[in-house]
Structure formats: C-alpha cells, structure tokens
Design brief:
about 45 residues; mainly alpha
C-alpha cells in the first residue's frame, strides 16, 4: 500500500524521491490509518 503510493509519486515526479519527500508520504499514510509514528534507532556496527 505505501510502496505503491511511493511508486506513484516517483512516476508523477519523474525522478526518485528524496528522503524527506518519501517520509512525508509515509507519515501522511500512517496518520490516515491511525498508526503511531514511533521510529526506533538503528545501531550500525
């Protein structure tokens, strides 16, 4: 669902989305479906 919206946005833009643009789309979808926006930190090695 989210991946298809991201793909549609990339097609409309005609390029790859930036990190901030894709996060805005994901955040909007999470608000629409009332999912919490809790991100966990990733600890690289």
């Amino acid at each position: 669902m989210i991946m298809s919206r991201l793909r549609e946005a990339e097609v409309l833009a005609g390029r790859m989305l930036t990190r901030n643009e894709s996060l805005e789309i994901v955040a909007k979808n999470m608000r629409d479906y009332m999912n919490p926006m809790n991100f966990t930190r990733w600890r690289g090695r």
